[in-house]
Amino acid sequence: MAITGAPAMDAPFFRGLGLSDKIWNNGPISLQIQWFQQITATVCGGGAACKRYLRDSLVVFGEFGGNDYNAMLFGNYSADQSSRYTTKIVNTIIRGVEKVVGMGARDVVVPGVLPIGCFPIYLTVYGTNNSANYNALGCLRKCNDLSTFHNNLLQAEIARLRKRYGRAARIMYADFYSAVYDMVQNPKKYGFNAVFEACCGSGGGKYNYANSARCGMQGATACANPADHLSWDGIHLTEAAYKQITDGWLNGPYCSPPILHT
């Protein structure tokens, strides 16, 4: 049911912040769940039959939150200002998880958000000569602090859901942040030669990223071996990076508990 560029929050939320022009579409959690309800009814007939069907399915709920922060951070909200809305965003995610569990889902994976301060798009847009704004790896501190704040709140709420549902539902926290951060910190371990430079782009410079010359735009080119890079286009990761994340979610250590279990 995923919608490209979708936020967790709905359009009125962004209108209230003066950010209507910063979201790509109106495809929030509420709409995606509506679609999910409609499609499951056509697949399994609704009612008890669908509950049984979803009981044997794996639901990956998100990642939600990233596009909400994108809208704020690229709409001249600081990371600290954006964090004021984290509780609302996390609560919206949790209510969505409760709805799919109520529909019968038993195994639900809930991903956190990524360390956005390590991504070429943010490093380019928020680049500064002030070294205090960066951590030892070269990632933007405030942006990563926002991601960490979100993930900590989300994990706390997931823990609450686990207590509420007990064995009736298996709710897993999928750790995007730690998986990607370890790749930034130990690139050779994963076969990467570049972690901050986008493979595809025409921006040049340190990060090969420019909003006016993104991957897919005229003049953009892709590197010869994307598997050498952590970042595909400055915004998204390469397939090589996602494979590492997938393995970490399926078998551990980046999903709690791991998706595959005996």
TrEMBL record:
The keyword Glycoprotein applies. GO terms for molecular function: hydrolase activity, acting on ester bonds. It comes from the Eukaryota. The keyword Glycoprotein applies. Gene3D superfamilies: SGNH hydrolase. Belongs to the 'GDSL' lipolytic enzyme family. Pfam families: Lipase_GDSL. InterPro entries: GDSL, SGNH_hydro_sf. It comes from Triticum aestivum (Wheat). The lineage of its organism: Eukaryota, Viridiplantae, Streptophyta, Embryophyta, Tracheophyta. This is Esterase. Keywords: Glycoprotein.
